[in-house]
# Entry
Amino acid sequence: MSRHRTYCVPYKRIMEAAVSAVVAVIAGLAAVTNRLHNRINLVHSRITDMDRRVDGIELRIATNYVDKVEFKAGLQRMEDHMVRIENKLDQIVMRNG
# Structure
């Protein structure tokens, strides 16, 4: 019976050490998982913030943007007006010339 006790005590110590090691490994994995999750949330929030800023810039560009067709039409109206002014100046010069 004393022989059984000597073998039982190291076995209990080994089991206690193994349980402690398993608990430490689980705690370490939990800590790593928690840190990783926090970093993922941080990256996600940064991406979301950047997406909002890009959306705001797109909105400002869209409100201040002049369509090419509209620009050409405005430019044509200005050119037509300048031609009328030139014609009037030519008429004035012909009368006084």
The chain has two helices and no strands. The CA atoms of residues 24 and 61 lie 55 Å apart. The chain has a mean pLDDT of 87. The chain has two domains: 1-65, 67-97.
